[in-house]
Design brief:
It contains 21 helices and 20 strands. By secondary structure, it is α/β, with parallel strands linked by helices.
Length: 560
């Protein structure tokens, strides 16, 4: 059969399971968008108001479904606008496909209008980037695409298509399906037995779960293993929900930017730490300032592990999820159980200390402001277990770590490893498109929301009913706090002013609500959860409020 190149791409992507394209139209991709028009009954094209939003929506679709998302952007400025989203995906190792238009081939290299060297720029932010030179190359690139997407380490794929290629004819069959790697590969049972021996002998065992290990059913294997060794489970930001955070052995997020004190203490005092994945890094360890006192056994397929300034007792180069399953099977089959009462008693002390901090935060009172700790505690109590939470970057995200429990894998999204602002709201949009039956809530700061607020119009137009909680302190508060603590109160460039986010929501055609006092918390949460329309809740808080966190380790990290 004969296809245009654009038709070949769309049908191939459809066969690969892609049902949504996100992007902003431009002259260099006009022919591709015209082809999507013919597929509009099968494939959805979501026009966003900014290219970064498009890429982050595709990013979120993968994170909540493990189905790669796709974005399409114009050449030159469109491609450049996509870079922050691309960087977030690269740092968090999220596979997605970015298609960008390019200048016509005869103009390439002539400093033409819209021309930038996309490959040179994308090389640092992608796993693979290619500029298509002819029809035959496009066919070969697409046939190799499944392996590039699923091989590790994961990362975004970028394909630049010159404007004059879209309508060229291609002969051959489009790709039919993804072929995923077999789970039967490469488990050395001697490694499994050695890890079991470490865990049996350990007095203070812990398991650190990273994003690399996350699959839908990981929780049962984690909990089953942890219960047999009295081992506590810690997670990175990209692995929240790996186990139900209400389980007594799950201590949640560890490290800079929201780690709980019990999780940090267990990381520091464990005599055996089993690391499932590639995120035992500067974030998890506060720039390597806290570190396990005993043996560290890491399981990862990411070569970056060997470049970290860390000593491993043993580094096992394998898929951490598959290794966990083999470990769980071996331990269960042999009915191994070890009781560690002194470890439980020690950790209970950390938990008691943390509980006091949480209660103190919840009981604070402010004149003219709402207590954010109280708000997020009430919100957590009312949320369904199937909720998806996306968190922004700033002090406000710490409230989601301290007071909101994630019950399932792939249900918490944040720009963990890049720390980029303006990811959370677009990610919520992508998650809602991918999982329309789930409640999806973005928790953002006022500073970052104003970087992507234009796409609230996209929510209205495309009927994407995400809920946005804007933690509004009229500041870039991370830096405001550092200026007050580390710079002797020399506050400069961190104070902001904002519109009423309630009225802004209404201006776009959505629903808004303002909570500026504790007495309004219940009604605000009720309004947010009952709304079936795009919703913005303006949570007005004091810039003086500090959520519970490991402030000592955080300040040490900030000081270098």
């Amino acid at each position: 059969m004969e296809y245009t190149l654009a038709e070949f791409i769309v049908e191939s992507f459809y066969n690969l399971g892609i049902r949504n394209f996100y992007g902003v139209i431009g002259t260099s991709i006009l022919d591709f968008i015209d082809t999507l028009y013919d597929w509009r009954d099968k494939v959805r094209f979501v026009t966003t108001r900014h290219e970064q939003t498009a890429v982050s929506m595709a990013d979120a679709e993968y994170r909540v479904t493990h189905r790669p998302g796709a974005a399409v952007v114009h050449a030159g400025p469109g491609f450049l606008n996509s870079l922050l989203g691309l960087g977030v995906s690269y740092k968090d190792r999220v596979p997605l496909i970015l298609i960008s238009g390019g200048v016509r081939r005869r103009l390439y290299g002539s400093d033409a209008w819209l021309e930038v060297d996309q490959q040179a720029i994308a090389k640092a932010l992608t796993k693979y980037t290619v500029r298509i030179s002819d029809e035959e190359e496009l066919v070969e690139v697409l046939r190799a695409l499944p392996n590039k997407i699923f091989s590790k380490p994961h990362g975004p794929i970028h394909i630049e298509v010159p404007e004059d290629l879209w309508n060229r004819k291609v002969k051959g069959e489009p790709i039919k399906r993804f072929t995923t790697p077999s789970e039967e590969r490469g488990i050395n049972m001697n490694d499994v037995d050695e890890v079991i021996e470490y865990l049996v002998k350990s007095e203070k065992p812990a398991i650190l779960v990273c994003g690399e290990a996350i699959q839908e059913d990981i929780g049962s294997y984690l909990i089953g293993l942890a219960e047999r060794f009295d081992a506590y489970i810690l997670t990175t930001g990209n692995a929240r929900g790996a186990c139900d955070e209400s389980h007594p052995l799950c201590l949640g997020r560890v490290g800079f930017g929201g780690g709980s004190i019990p999780a940090d203490k267990v990381l520091e005092n464990a005599d055996v730490l089993l690391v499932l994945g590639d995120e035992l890094d500067d974030i998890t360890t506060y720039n390597y300032l806290i570190f396990p006192s005993g043996d560290v056994i890491a399981v990862s397929e990411n070569p970056i592990m060997e470049k970290r300034p860390i000593y491993y007792t043993k580094l096992i180069k394998n898929d951490p999820y598959i290794f966990l399953k083999a470990l769980h099977y071996r331990v269960t089959n042999r009915d191994i159980r070890v009781d560690k009462p002194s470890w439980r008693e020690e950790v209970q002390g950390y938990l008691d200390e943390w509980t006091v901090m949480l209660e103190e935060a919840v009981n604070r009172r402010y004149d003219g402001y709402v207590n954010p700790a109280r708000f997020f505690k009430v919100l957590d109590e009312k949320l369904p277990s199937e909720v998806v939470i996306t968190g922004g970057q700033g002090v406000h995200i710490v409230y989601t770590y301290a007071f909101m429990r994630i019950r399932r894998p792939m249900r918490f999204l944040a720009a963990t490893n890049l720390g980029g602002m303006s990811y959370a709201f677009p990610a919520a949009m992508g998650a809602k498109v991918a999982l329309p039956e789930h409640e999806v809530i973005a928790v953002v700061g006022d500073g970052e929301f104003m970087m992507s607020v234009q796409d609230f119009e996209t929510c209205i137009r495309e009927k994407i009913p995400v809920k946005v909680v804007v933690v509004n302190d009229n500041s870039y508060r991370v830096l405001l706090l550092r200026q007050r603590i580390q710079k002797g109160g020399r506050v400069y460039g961190t104070i902001l002013s904002n519109p009423s986010f309630e009225k802004l929501a209404e201006t776009f055609g959505g629903i808004g609500y303002t909570v500026d006092d504790d007495s309004k918390i219940s009604d605000g949460v009720k309004a947010l959860l009952e709304s079936e329309e795009p919703f913005i809740l303006d949570l007005r808080i004091s810039p003086e409020d500090l959520p519970p966190l490991n402030i000592e380790a955080s300040l040490r990290m900030a000081g270098g």
